[in-house]
Model the fold of this input.
Amino acid sequence: MSSKTINILLAEDQGMLLGALGALLDLEPDFTVVYKANNGQQALDYLRDSSQTPVNIVLTDIEMPEMTGIELAEQIQQLQLPVKTLILTTFSRSGYLRRAMDAGVSGYLLKESPSEELAAAIRKVASGGKVIAPELMANAWMERDPLTDKERQALRLTFEGLSTEAIGEKLFLSAGTVRNYLSNAASKLQANNRVEAARIAHQNGWL
Amino acid sequence: MSSKTINILLAEDQGMLLGALGALLDLEPDFTVVYKANNGQQALDYLRDSSQTPVNIVLTDIEMPEMTGIELAEQIQQLQLPVKTLILTTFSRSGYLRRAMDAGVSGYLLKESPSEELAAAIRKVASGGKVIAPELMANAWMERDPLTDKERQALRLTFEGLSTEAIGEKLFLSAGTVRNYLSNAASKLQANNRVEAARIAHQNGWL
DNA sequence: CGATCAATATGACAAATGTCATCTGCAATT
DNA sequence: AATTGCAGATGACATTTGTCATATTGATCG
Done:
């Protein structure tokens, strides 16, 4: 089963990393990089185009314009596309892991870890295994995102610096309600104010 | 002048990108990656070690632990090491460009731009030229950082979610003074409140 | 149908924040 | 010694937040 070549699709918005990863993976004789996408949407478009070379592995970043890697994974799951998804992202946002697992990804790697581990991870996933960066195992089953949808949205806008009123307008809520949500969010996150709450939520990948 | 091989030192804390860039550059027959450092300090140590292979080009990220790429460039300038420095970093912090130029770097590239441009940029710098990512030329001579030292510090702490009082304690200032500083900063940055001001300053690399 | 629950609103009050004018030292300048 | 300038502090006042208790409105479910 290891004699057949593994067809890889890369999705990464940082052009430099995208190209460099392509070069790195092309060094492996059993890998073929069939497509390099700049965002999740491009990747999905390619995957759904039956006239293209079939893909075995999707290696994707999370934070990308148009469509994030997590949304891509969710789409792949919903459409039941015959590919394994492998997330390659930055450490900080630990909350992403859970969402990624829920989206049925086969692996979750960190850009921090040495590049030598990448090929092995891809082969493992290709043969049906799961891979999770060891750094994440520790605090993996940390607190799950305690925020409601509205709280999350309000925090996101707070993070941008919007006032209560401005947030209310955007979300079609009264200013008072927004204040309540932010107050709730802050107490859930044990923050002293909306700003700290937004920062915490952001760090955990909950925004 | 193009027949001699160009010796490159890479400095980048993201292991994955470091390794991948190594693979990418090794594809070029006239390039040799002689060392891969995880931070500025490692890079500098190598450069100062006369028993090591001499380096022509230092390709470095900015935000790294131990020593940033800008600090590395400054050291190289001060020690008058015979290498050209090329910065490779992320778009957002546009204020970095000025500091980098002051540190005498020969080039400033973006991780966003396509990897195909990298080799050409390195060759150009190796032969004495300067390279600046076109995206930056536009807003390069944008407003210089208008913040005073205290305003900057106050904004940094605001960004972390600290209250006026807490900031005052950290900076040994009265709460009122902190409020004044933040008020000033906000008006300088045309922000409606401290949070927005902190966000703007952060985006511009002023924190 | 009535009970229950969640989402949204309101009102009230304390606390924090934004704005501005003004004061106090202290250091540099002339 | 007199002047200027600047960092820091104060005080006053309007506005915005934080907190909490209590409506209102639908949807849901037994």
